[in-house]
Amino acid sequence: MKARSVDFAKLWEYSVGFYGVWLVHLGRQTGLFETLASSPMSITELVSVTKTYPSAVQAWCSAAIAYGLIIEKKGKVYLKPGMRAMLLDKKNPNYLGGQFSYLALRSLEYSAFEGLFRYGKTHEMSSNINAIEQATDWDHYAFIARVRRDRKLDQLLSRGCRLLDVGCGTGSLLVKMHDVYKKSSFVGIDPSGKAVARARSIAKNKSIKIIKQAGESMTFENEFDIVYLGESLYAARDKQRVISNCLRALKNGGTIAIVEGLLPESNLRTDDDRLIMGMELDFALQGYRFMTKKQVAKLLEKFSRVRFEDLGGSVYLVTGTRNSFLPY
Ligand SMILES: C[S@@+](CC[C@H](N)C(=O)[O-])C[C@H]1O[C@@H](n2cnc3c(N)ncnc32)[C@H](O)[C@@H]1O
Question: In this structure, which residue's CA is closest to atom 14 in ligand 1?
Answer without folding.
Answer: 167
